[in-house]
Amino acid sequence: MSIVSTGAKGQAVLLMGNDAIARGALEAGVRVVAGYPGTPSSEIIQTLADVATDHGLYVEWSANEKVGLEVAAAGSFAQLRSMAVMKQVGVNVASDFLLHLTEYGTRAGLVLITCEDPGGLSSTNEGDSRHYAKMMEFPLVEPGNFQEAKDMAAWSFELSEKIRNVVMFRSVTRMSHASGNVVLGEIIPGPSKARFQFDGDMMDQMGGPVVTFPGTVDAMHRRQLEKLATAREIFETSPFNTYTGPDQPELLIITSSAAYLYSQEAIALLGLEERVGLLKLGTTWPLPPRLMAKHLNASEKIFIIEEGMPFLEDNVKALWTEMGPEAGKKQFFGRKLGPLPPTNELNPDRVALGLAEILGLPAPLPDQAYWERANELAKSHAPFRAMTFCPGCPHRASYWVINSALKQDNRHGFVCGDIGCYTMGAISCGFNTLKTSHAMGSGTGIASGFGKLGRFGFDQPVMAVSGDSTFFHAVMPALVNAVHNQADMILVVVDNSGTAMTGFQPHPGSLSGASGGALPALDIARICEAMGVKVVIADPFEMEATEKILLDLLDETGGVRVLILRQACALSPGKKGKRQFDMTVDDSACLAEDCGCNRLCTRIFGCPGLIWDPKAKKTRIDEVTCVGCGVCAAICPTGAISRKEVA
């Protein structure tokens, strides 16, 4: 069992940020946890799912983030401390319900954890969810180190219960996935009896029906603003807001989250401890005005350092204008006008460069000899690693077949993509197959739109690609729309038996839940058939048969067709380490560069299990990385690659 679950009060341990958050929730007595997997948030739910039985928790991977927040809200309404967990793009999915939930409020503590991805390390955007807290008028807190990640997670439940509303707890990649020392507190189990009281009147938040209704909007909004005012007053003396530095600093840094760690390092690097003040805010919305005024009055130069958009910067400036003439003249620095870059994540070097620019100091230059040597070693020793599908990935085979079928069809057809491992279908490893890719489910929605443009002379075949988890998350409404409106399109579901991109978390098509217990699996094919759609199931590794099926579907017109390409991910727990075939290359048959294919296998197909031997000028099988899927045997035009079934 994890130290997150078993560690004793007072014990000092090394924890990843997400594990610290999970421990804080356990110490607060959380009972209901729900959400949807997404890097960098996924470990929080999985960690709690692994200890759910020992601590009497209900933990689920929900169909999507909106449903996850709704499940957590039900727990809160039934007097159980609850938590919803997601990444920044997931908050957009949850936002419809979140707007109504924060207007009405909560009962037992309800914390919304959003783990965000500045720089888009594992995302297709740099979305910043903090604006929802301001727009929807509920509190936002951000831990500044790993100890605070635990302590603030636990405290957030208390804050939620004091104001009877949602509290947003924001982490970022370098907080969630880095590690630091944490002193554990005591795990205090929360109430285990759930009961929903609904006999009071509509404005009785703790005992009436939980309803947002036109006639109550004004009263509920006023109540919501009172809650926000209470949070603002609590924030004035919060221990998570700290200041270090001189009483009258030459420059005041205002920062939060992981940027606090960067700021500390940059100040130490430049030796500015006696010149620069550092105000770390853990409570970033609403800002505590008296605390802010005290520190803003101490310096004329303010440097706001934050991960994401200039959210804190804009709010500090707004607060300064509200302070009136007595606030004096200020010079603000940050993301908006520099010296920090307006995009990408920060680091200590970028913060140090900004500090040096503001204070007129020489730029802190890295050790030039070190970087020259590092670059030299990188070029001479480190192999080039392109972004690609894993060896034996079924998506490579799927895109090969789709690409081939569209070229044979020769009507300039195209594919609308979606979010998952298969998003790489937009680049060379996926043969540049995807021509659109946006939010989860958008591939099917966009294809549905293209499929209705025939009246305008549109005659190109259109497909959408979706993963199995994404099908349940967001594709079903788009598919309903396409079927109802008789869009001419093909939906290809690349079913690899789990939420592979984020760690094989189960989804509604799986036979188990977050904690491993047996659950009924929903069948994608039967769901589509129930919508009145023609469904064909194929194995992408059987490339010739699958290609024929797809060509037949392309010949059909006038409605939605669904092709389910079913093959488990090579790294899935049930398949990892198991070979179906032993692969060999016949040197006498491999013509390589002299073949009309011009090394099709290694140059175009590009499976990492195939390598080019420049001395022998032959293709080889990399026995270390090859998983024995057998697909490459089907794409070699000379038959030089063969497969033998493993006994």
Q: How would you describe this structure in keywords?
A:
single chain, 647 residues, alpha/beta, Rossmann fold, 4 domains, 7-stranded mixed beta sheet, 6-stranded parallel beta sheet, 22 helices, 17% strand
Give a structural overview:
The protein is an alpha/beta fold. The chain folds into four domains: 3-235, 3-Layer(aba) Sandwich (Rossmann fold); 242-359, Rossmann fold (3-Layer(aba) Sandwich), CATH 3.40.50; 394-566, 3-Layer(aba) Sandwich (Rossmann fold), CATH 3.40.50.970; 581-645, Alpha-Beta Plaits. Helices cover 37% and strands 17% of the residues. It is built from 22 helices and 24 strands. A seven-stranded mixed sheet has the order 3-2-4-5-7-6-12. α20 links the parallel β19 and β20. α2 runs parallel beside α8. The chain is globular. The mean pLDDT is 94.
